[in-house]
Amino acid sequence: MSTRKKGLYAGKVKKAVQMLFYKRHAKPGVKGWELHKALGSDYPKVLDVLDDYLKPMDMMVKIVFEEEKTPENPTIEELDKARFFVVLRDVASKDKLMGWRVDDLAGLAVTISYIISKKGQANRKDIEKLLNEKMPGWKVGLNLDRYIRHGYLTQDESGQLFLDWRTRAEIDQKKLIEMLLLAEKQTAEAAKSLPEEQTDEIQTDET
User: Is residue 107 part of a domain?
Assistant: First the structure.
């Protein structure tokens, strides 16, 4: 977009920044219809300009649609129903700012992928059992509470866990599953390439 057009949108960009960065609801972000009302029907272009300004700061405008499947060419009606966030572009920077250990992040990845595999919800006890195989038992409950507190998960009264707004806003769920499947495949292939003696030793150790 040209500098002239950016200048024309300057006032609206300022308003968009105020709306996106100021937490007005229980959940961060702003619904599309709110932006539509405040900025006009061209608010998607205003957000494109804002996104350009955010790039040097390693941040971006993220759109989360109500439906799990993201439309390729969303209509203004679909955008009005979506929620808009400002998030970090670089996952490494995000992790560094969060100050989480690698095993904490791995636990989050396993938890999210498990819930996805269970069609969007899973019993907390089942996830605790799964995480007990990945990390010390004393950390499991603490980490799940942490994931909930940071908005990656939400829990209902019956102990069912669901994906919350931050997972949908920050994590590419399809890419996460692909990465986990690839890692599992590589581990299996590496095990096959080991000499039989070493494979026997691994199996003996596991038993």
Answer: yes
